[in-house]
Design brief:
Number of domains: 2
Shape: elongated
Oligomer: single chain
Strand content: 15-25%
Number of helices: 8
CATH architecture of the largest domain: 3-Layer(aba) Sandwich
Helix content: 40-55%
Distance between the termini: 45 Å
Structural class: alpha/beta
Length: 212
């Protein structure tokens, strides 16, 4: 399957999840983290999903799915244990709606990749639905390479970039500073917990005249 990779902003986007078991719970958790407006339809649900409903983090309907549930939904996920029920969800979708059917990549207009997340840093791994097990294996390997220190490092680089962009420098000067900030020493200081030294060196860099 040939897919176009992209990251999307789901803030306040209406999303429907049909099913409320363990698989659905993982998918719902990701949607909630993305600040989507989630509606769940299922005959039963896990305790965690019930808790999310009690906390008003999502809308829960404990009943059978109806095609009317699709109205105004941007994304639909069918994650029940019933293949026929999942197929019914797919058939009810409109062409403009994005749909993901659990364990049926051939029926999906989008798939959810295996993810490595370190704060603002996100690395997505996908085999186009051909072998999810391989994607998960590669994710575990990537998690070892991209350690937890990358969360702080990514935040540091983002903050420094904003400072550089507000210095009123020429484009060439900005590129020189931003390239210097990507030098391995800044990552090593982050990794070693030498945050004060890292920030001090970065501050001094901003006040030096760039030399090409």
């Amino acid at each position: 399957m040939s897919l176009y990779p992209m990251f999307v902003n789901l803030t306040d986007k209406r999303c429907l999840v049909v099913g409320a078991g363990q698989v659905a719970e993982r998918k719902i958790a990701s949607l909630l983290c993305a600040k989507a407006k989630v509606t769940v339809v299922s005959l039963s649900c896990t305790p965690v999903i019930q808790q999310w409903s009690d906390e008003a983090r999502l809308t829960l309907h404990l009943r059978a799915f109806s095609p009317e549930d699709m109205q105004e939904m941007a994304i639909i996920i069918a994650a029940t244990s019933d293949a026929a029920a999942n197929l019914a969800v797919h058939r009810a979708c409109q062409p403009h709606q994005w749909v993901n059917i659990a364990d049926r990549p051939d029926l999906c207009s989008f798939i959810v990749p295996a993810m490595v997340e370190r704060g603002d840093l996100q690395v997505a791994i996908s085999t186009g639905g051909a072998n999810p097990g391989l994607a998960k294996k590669l994710r575990r390997q990537a998690e070892q390479w991209i350690g937890p220190e990358y969360e702080s490092y990514t935040q540091f680089l983002g903050e420094m970039r904003q400072q550089v962009l507000h210095l009123g420098l020429e484009e060439g000067e900005k590129r020189i500073i931003l390239r210097e900030l990507l030098d391995d020493r800044f990552f090593q200081w982050t990794q070693n917990g030498e945050i004060e030294r890292r920030d001090r060196e970065a501050k001094e860099l901003l006040h030096r005249l760039p030399r090409g």
